[in-house]
């Protein structure tokens, strides 16, 4: 059993319990990433593109929950959003 399938099965089993927790986690991490992107400045195109993707991915995850998509879609959007936010924080903090 891979790590992905293990976490997905736990997420699927306790889906309604994880919804509020992941919304708060993902929104806070997306906000921190946006803060670091804005602290670096938007004088180049790279900052604008990073901010665009940060906001879009965070919004897509929240929209996936509100649209009541399948658990697999919601879980994949959570992973994508968290990974991009962490990448943006690390990239802009250095």
TrEMBL record:
Name recorded for this polypeptide: Uncharacterized protein
Domain of life of the native organism: Bacteria
Segments passing through the bilayer: 15-36, 48-67, 73-93
Keywords: Membrane, Transmembrane, Transmembrane helix
């Amino acid at each position: 059993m891979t790590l992905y399938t293990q976490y997905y099965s736990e997420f699927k089993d306790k889906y309604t319990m994880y919804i509020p927790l992941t919304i708060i986690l993902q929104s806070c991490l997306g906000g921190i990433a946006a803060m670091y992107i804005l602290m670096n400045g938007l004088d180049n195109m790279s900052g604008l593109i990073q901010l665009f993707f940060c906001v879009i991915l965070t919004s897509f995850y929240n929209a996936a929950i509100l649209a009541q998509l399948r658990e697999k879609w919601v879980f994949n959007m959570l992973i994508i959003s968290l990974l991009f936010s962490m990448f943006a924080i690390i990239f802009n903090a250095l």
